[in-house]
């Protein structure tokens, strides 16, 4: 019997490796649109965050999203993501 491997992802806020299912995926689409991917199935480049506002704030401060997506991210996008994160929490 082989044990099923659990996919791990690194949080761009705190840097911890956690189970993919526990995390929130932030997506950059081919049109350079950034949004929260609740299903984790949409096409595009993904970055993962713990479902806590503290990790989100750390990611904003350390520019984790900018590094993950290799682009600058406007303040409005962060504000929209923060509103969506509060609904998760």
UniProtKB/TrEMBL annotation:
Ranges for domain YlxR: 9-83
Domain of life of the organism encoding this protein: Bacteria
Membrane-crossing segments per the record: none
Pfam family, one: YlxR
Xref: InterPro entries: YlxR, YlxR-like_sf, YlxR_dom
Name used for this protein in its record: YlxR domain-containing protein
Originating species: Lacrimispora saccharolytica (strain ATCC 35040 / DSM 2544 / NRCC 2533 / WM1) (Clostridium saccharolyticum)
């Amino acid at each position: 019997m082989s044990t099923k491997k659990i996919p791990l992802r690194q949080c761009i806020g705190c840097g911890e490796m956690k189970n993919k299912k526990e995390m929130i995926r932030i997506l950059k689409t081919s049109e350079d649109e950034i949004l929260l991917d609740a299903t984790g199935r949409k096409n595009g480049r993904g970055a993962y965050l713990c479902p806590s506002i503290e990790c989100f704030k750390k990611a904003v401060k350390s520019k984790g999203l900018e590094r993950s997506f290799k682009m600058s991210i406007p303040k409005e996008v962060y504000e929209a993501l923060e509103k969506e994160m509060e609904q998760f929490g």
